[in-house]
Design goal:
The protein is an alpha/beta fold and 350 residues long. The protein is built from 15 helices and nine strands. The longest helix has 20 residues, at 330-349. Residues 285-344 form the CBS domain.
């Protein structure tokens, strides 16, 4: 069992993954499909110096070594794509790639991108080998992290900017909670990216609760757009006001939200006080500020499936009263699997 799992290399996880597209270091951020003049900086401006977020590894790197790199802070692993061809066959393949997919070649080689999700998917495909670990609760496994990023529902959304930046590094999000610690929703870098650059004005002027409505109604409601414009005028932010132009087709059909209809600290719960599962488990692109949640008693495999299904690297953990207990991330899960692999390896050699 241990030999079967430990024999795998990162190259095995690359099967079927497309090659990375290549950009020159002189390319501008504008080339990544953004019209803003402020985005004409070179792409190197996005790459922090001496960062461990992206690590280059060889195809022969072991699965354990890959997990260790992730636990040390790597978000993604860049792996050269191995080809089984040689000689003239390899030259013909490279010539074909150059003519049809030249943007995927770098120094004559192609690379693929491995994420934490790829490793978790691999373990999920072999989950039966880890029995009875998959059925254990996340609480019993001790993988619920009580250190998470949050902001109050009535707090200014601008206070969350530092937390949002941190969540981008951690690949998580910022929880929006009420005065009782009840989870109302979340603000994630992915969500904000879907909103476009005009969301900067919303973050500057709205409360965290109002921002949830701004990003969570299939387009910003007309009333909230009006609030943003009024507050920009009040603060003499004329330059930002000029940039704050929203296509009328992007405005939510729910254009006359009253104060009673705005998302409130209780709107995410049913009449019985429980978190509304029908909304919390809905498609992220439809209800982008809804948090994906589980409970301390949820099994490891259930949380893995849940995170993968919603394409997130984490799941919020709540109690029956909807108060936040903590967060479970892919990194937390990988620690458990790494310990199990080591134990299996020792048992194999014993």
């Amino acid at each position: 069992m241990a030999a079967h799992l430990l024999a795998h290399e990162v190259a095995d996880l690359c099967l079927g993954k497309p090659p990375l597209r290549s950009l020159s270091v002189s390319a501008t951020i504008e080339n990544v499909n953004s019209p803003s003049l402020a985005l004409k900086s070179p792409v190197t401006a996005l790459l922090p110096k001496d960062s461990v977020l992206v690590r280059h590894v060889q195809p022969s790197t072991s699965l354990l070594e890959a997990i260790d790199l992730i636990l040390q802070g790597a978000q993604n692993l860049v792996v050269p794509i191995e080809t089984r061809f040689s000689g003239s066959s390899r030259r013909k393949l490279l010539q074909k790639s150059s003519s049809t997919r030249g943007c995927t070649l770098h120094n004559g080689r192609e690379f693929c991108w491995l994420t934490q999700e790829d490793v978790i998917r691999y373990f999920l495909s072999s989950i039966g080998l880890f029995s009875p670990l998959p059925t254990a609760s996340i609480d019993a496994l001790g993988i619920i992290s009580t250190e998470f990023l949050s902001i109050g529902y009535h707090s200014s959304a601008s206070l969350a900017t530092e937390a949002i930046s941190r969540s981008l590094v951690d690949q998580t999000s910022v929880a929006i909670v009420d005065e009782d610690g009840v989870l109302i929703g979340e603000i994630s870098p992915f969500t904000l990216a879907c909103c476009g650059e005009t969301v900067a004005a919303a973050i500057t002027t709205l409360t965290a609760g109002e921002l949830l409505a701004y990003i969570d109604c299939g387009g910003p409601p007309e009333d909230i757009v009006r609030v943003v414009k009024e507050r920009l005028k009040e603060r003499n932010l004329e330059g930002m006001l000029e940039e704050f132009e929203i296509d009328p087709s992007d405005i939510s059909s729910n254009s006359s939200l009253s104060d009673e209809e705005l998302p409130s600290p209780t709107s995410s719960r049913s009449s019985g006080g429980r978190y509304n599962k029908s909304s919390s488990y809905s498609a992220r692109m439809v209800r982008r500020a809804e948090a994906i949640v589980c409970y301390p008693g949820s099994s490891l495999v259930a949380v893995m499936v849940q995170a993968i299904a919603h394409r997130v690297n984490y799941v919020w953990v709540i109690e029956e009263d909807c108060s936040v207990v903590g967060i479970v991330t892919f990194a937390n899960m990988l620690e458990v699997f790494r310990d199990q692999l080591e134990a299996m390896m020792l048992g194999h050699f014993d």
